[in-house]
Amino acid sequence: MTTLTTEAGTIQRMRETFVHTLDRAMNDDPRLALVLAATALGPFARTALTHPNRVVNVGIREQLMITTAAGLALTGLRPVVHAPALVERAFGQLKTDLTHQDAGAVLVSTGASHDTPEQGRTRMAPGDIALLDTLPGWTVHVPGHADEVPRLLAPALTGGDRVYLRLSTRGNAAARPVGQGLVVVRSGSRRAAGTVIAVGPMLDRVLAATRELDVTVAYLATVRPFDRTGLSRIVARAGHADVMIVEPYLRGTSAHEIAEALNGRRHRQLGLGTLRHTEIRGYGAPDDHDRAHGLDTAGLARHARDFFLD
Question: Which parts of the sequence belong to the Transketolase-like pyrimidine-binding domain (predicted)?
Answer without folding.
Answer: 12-175
